[in-house]
Amino acid sequence: MPATSEDLPLQFARTKRFSLGVPRGFAVSPDGDRVLFLRTASGRSTTGLLWLYENGEERPLADPLALGDGGDAGGEVPEAERIRRERARETSAGIVSYATDAAVRLAAFALSGALWTVTTDEGVTRRIPTAGPVVTPRPSPDGTHIAYVSGGTLRVVRADGTGDHALAEPEGPDITYGLSDHVSAESLERTRSFWWSPDGTALLVVRVDNAPVQQWYMGDPAHPARPPRAIRYPAAGTANARLSLHVVDLDGHRVDVDLPQEAVSHPDGEWTDPAFEYVAQADWSEAGPLAVVQTRDQRSAYVLRIDPATGATTPLHHLTDTAWLEFVPGTPAITAATGLVLTTQEGTRGLLMTGTGVRTPEGMYVHELLGTAGGRLYFMAAEEPTEAHVWSYDTENGFIRLTDEPGVHHAAVGGDTVVLDSSTLDGQTVTVLRDGTPAGRIEVLAERPVTRPHPRFLTLGERELRAALYLPTSYEPGSPESASSESVSTASGHGRLPVIVHSYSGPGWQTVVKAARWHHAVNQWFADQGFAVLSVDGRGTPGRDRAWETAIHGDQLMPVVEDQADAVRAVAELFPELDTSRVAIRGWSFGGYLAAGAVLHRPEVFHAAVAGAAPTDLRLYDTHWKERYLGHPDIQPDHYDRCSLVAYAHKLTRPLMLVHGMADDNVVPAHMVRFSAALLAAGRPHTVLPLAGATHLVAQEGVIDTLLRMDLDFIKKSLDPRTA
């Protein structure tokens, strides 16, 4: 890592949250000989390259600069690709995604809407002429054709550049083939919408009809001459896009898949909707095409086998849950040894091998099914919430843990090769294993933070909340001087350490992990300014059991706020140096929602808040994500009334700063505007910081670094007893 005199905020901005230089997107060939991956050329370069690891060495296969494309500067990124990147929280440019044939001999990718291929044998790149700007190109398994989407049309072209033609064309302006709708990409994390047959003669394709979805308009206040951008946003309680599946062969002949309309034997409830509205997952393996459809209320799902010749479907399994269904990424899958591999819904989220009746052990939380190779299943699972390890399973050897060091470990597999991506508190390493033995490493070029984090991992309170505490680097808790102002410069220069709570504590993401994550460095930077910083994973976060996750069903706010308040009390008992009369809370997205909710409802515990991109009116968030936890707003309005913040604006008695990206199409700026208006109407002073041109993921240099400093300044002033 090159030496730098930058402080943490500037380094954080220039490295895009320390994501630059990190290898990702691994693809391992079936024989285990070749590994493809994406990585920028350094911890400061924002241009992604496609790399090959082979015979113990890595080399670039495709460099946008060498191809005459300056990291997308050479042409405009298509709108559909821009939306895809926003849903994926992509911060780099250049080659940011790719796909390969089955043998990992041919890779395809898009640059500024142009289609490129590269062979792994000779490393020959070729620009393929297409009918229009290209999104999500994907080679056929035999490498002879490449399917892609352009203007909502699914097209195919031969790998030699000939024969480009349409396979499925939109019947209207609101229809697309092969692209994910908002809900599928944002909330279901289904980023793919077409799948090749193993013989490369046909594709299973999702058709999206957005016409029923309400249309919103987002203007740019910084550029009033520009017309507003129209987006289709399915807010809670409103219509979803209509989805259908089709089998299309290379001649354009189409077979419509006969998807079931409603679930039978569906769980009862205050709100029940058995209509299938979501295509949660799909795939096409040697066992044939499969799809998972989910009901609107998310309490039933069918795993369907599809007959590609007729479109007929056969239910293989009916999944149900009285709260909502969770799916382990990578499921369902089918292997000869295990049969159908499904997500279990009872106890701790795990895997069930229906062919043998074996399930992952109770207490093992499965994060992801990573793949199959050599007759083995590989998956990522946690026995302790702050860690996640790579495991294998086969019928002969049972369950074997492949990683030992505390951290978060991920893997990609092929043949006898396992690419082990390990993140610990010491940093990230990528190790290539052959037959279980280290055979080499793929370089991680990311910069180390100039502020080295020192989290103390704790288990707090009767609910055994997992938490991380950050104290100033020079601070020694428990020393005779630690309770005085002489031991370290506190934020106000008076007495014990004031506290900043920085938690996300929402579904889908954990912050209290023993891994190199950007928030550890940011929290340590705040601590080094004279604070104790506390991060807590409360009820609703992943990594524990179903009861823990579903504890927020019907109330997504107060259990989470109570966990944060309990953690503050518990940590103060362990560390009397903490001053709980001066506690601020800050966060982004769900964490921003939590921060604002904390000062509204528990002002005796939380004395100031910075709320970034906070969804304050939950009726404005999307159907799948909000209805999963709160139900239908027309049938269960009390859930939304209780959990939304706008109606409680009159309760604000503490300093509050609202921050929001004005181009955010996930948590739209209306959340901030409505909440601010309610605060003003109630006579409650507050601070508003709009970020011109920023989306939900704020990563621009000059914005994110300045924002960290402004957060710090606001908190210091708000907690200083001399200005209280």
Give me the secondary-structure topology.
Layout: H1 8-14, E1 24-28, E2 34-40, E3 47-54, E4 57-62, H2 79-87, E5 93-94, E6 99-100, E7 106-111, E8 114-119, E9 125-128, E10 135-139, E11 145-150, E12 153-158, E13 165-168, E14 175-177, H3 182-186, E15 194-196, E16 202-209, E17 215-218, E18 229-232, E19 242-249, E20 254-256, E21 276-285, E22 288-295, E23 300-306, E24 313-320, E25 333-335, E26 339-343, E27 351-353, E28 358-359, E29 365-373, E30 376-382, E31 389-394, E32 398-401, E33 408-414, E34 417-424, E35 427-434, E36 437-442, E37 456-460, E38 465-470, E39 497-502, H4 518-527, E40 532-537, H5 546-549, H6 558-574, E41 578-588, H7 590-601, E42 608-612, H8 623-630, H9 637-643, E43 656-661, H10 670-681, E44 687-691, H11 704-719
Helix pairs in contact: 1-11, 6-7
